[in-house]
Each structure stands twice: as C-alpha cells, then as structure tokens.
C-alpha cells in the first residue's frame, strides 16, 4: 500500500548553497534521494566536478563532488505535513538514522521537526510550522 506524500514547500541550506551540497560520490548518493526521499534527477554535470540537480515539488537541491564535508551540511525542508513526510520516508525503506519528532523554535516560528542523515553524511531536517 502506497502512503500519501508530503509536499516540500521551501528549502533552506545549513551552509551557503543548497545547489552544491557536498558528497563523496554523486552516483552512489542518487539512489537514496530518488528511492527514499522522492526526488528526481533533472540534470547532471561533469564540470567543474561531478554534480546532479534534483527536484521534488518544484524545489531543487544539488549534490556535488566539490570536496566539502557532507557531515557539516544539509538542508531544512519545510513540509505541509511532518507526520506524512515521516511515514513516507519509512514506507520508502528508511530504517535507520531517523530521529523522533521534536518541537523547536526559530525566531517567532514554532516547528515540529525530525532529522534524517543520508548515507552520504548530509543531514536533513523536515519541519512543519505549528500554530
């Protein structure tokens, strides 16, 4: 049985650039993003280094073999329903490195969040605004 999908509404990188998230091997990383996270590859580039642009819900991120440290980067995804996003990842095969829900406040906004660490080391936070 297929679960409903959450919609990613916005994305913010932890570092400077959501289009150049560092990975050691783009080709090896892609399966996780396509199968588990629901992204699709929209383009690939060989120069200045191997990279791929991924899209989901009109939101794009990029993976790049740029020499950066993936354990120090990732993105925050604002989703329409954090429980649906969690269930979708579990149904897509994610079995480890998934945190429990947490309530966090950034500025004036309260968020219900959970974290996922991709096999490439990048960390993603999924969050839904709370009223």
TrEMBL record:
It comes from Nibrella saemangeumensis. PROSITE patterns: VOC. InterPro entries: Glyas_Bleomycin-R_OHBP_Dase, Glyas_Fos-R_dOase_dom, VOC_core. Residues 15-129 form the VOC domain. This is VOC family protein. Pfam families: Glyoxalase.
């Amino acid at each position: 049985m297929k679960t409903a999908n959450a919609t990613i509404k916005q994305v913010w990188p932890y570092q400077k650039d959501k289009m150049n998230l560092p990975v050691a091997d783009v080709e090896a990383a892609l399966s996780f993003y396509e199968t588990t996270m629901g992204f699709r590859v929209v383009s690939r580039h060989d120069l200045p280094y191997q990279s791929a642009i991924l899209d989901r819900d009109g939101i794009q991120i990029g993976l790049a073999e740029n020499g950066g440290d993936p354990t120090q980067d990732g993105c925050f995804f604002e989703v329409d329903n954090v429980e649906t996003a969690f269930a979708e990842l579990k149904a897509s095969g994610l079995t480890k490195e998934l945190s429990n829900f947490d309530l966090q406040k950034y500025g004036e906004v309260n968020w219900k969040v959970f974290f996922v660490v991709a096999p490439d080391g990048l960390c993603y936070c999924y969050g839904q605004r709370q009223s």
